[in-house]
């Protein structure tokens, strides 16, 4: 078990077939933190409104997070666009998990990091939401292919590899969109008198300096399978769980005993 000062995860998308709940359960089993930030799109309300998909492994993730909160971890939930219905509960707590609009995290060395999902500063979300819905439908189809592709890889004893992430990063417009988003988030952090920002939304894990501000994105659990952590010595770093885990993790939808073991450990 590894202990951190803080862990940030986002874009889990529980309620979709693209969610890699088996890897996330394994991550939660092996990692603890003083503060655990859920930075939006934890449950995919968009998908659940269209069709209900909720395997046992997705329920296990929720129960694992609730258990961490009950045992003393400070769990803070910042809703995103796919779980925007939770925004009506700002200031409330559910099972010791606090729901907030945004929050400031202070690192060990005193830096102030503004924590927000990021969708409120995405031009597509704000001015062409219909386009975001269309894009989400296409993205879901790619993730469907990605899941079956990786199921074959796991059976062959190979590690997880994201076909969807590879395709996205080959498209010039997508690369430009990501760069614009990162600069906007850094600018907004400066306006809030913060030293940096932690966000999600675009599914691209990153730590870098932009115009003197620290930009951190914790990635996602459908493509990169990543988290942002602050170590007990104050170091910020991205963890790619498939790189640390080494061996492929069985899919609990097809190997239910693995999900039970991850939950009860």
From TrEMBL:
The keyword Cell inner membrane applies. Keywords: Cell inner membrane, Cell membrane, Hydrolase, Manganese, Membrane, Metal-binding. GO terms for cellular component: membrane. This is UDP-2,3-diacylglucosamine hydrolase. InterPro entries: Calcineurin-like_PHP, LpxH-like, Metallo-depent_PP-like. SUPFAM superfamilies: Metallo-dependent phosphatases. It comes from Polynucleobacter antarcticus. One of its GO terms (molecular function) is UDP-2,3-diacylglucosamine hydrolase activity. Pfam families: Metallophos. CDD domains: MPP_YbbF-LpxH. GO terms for biological process: lipid A biosynthetic process.
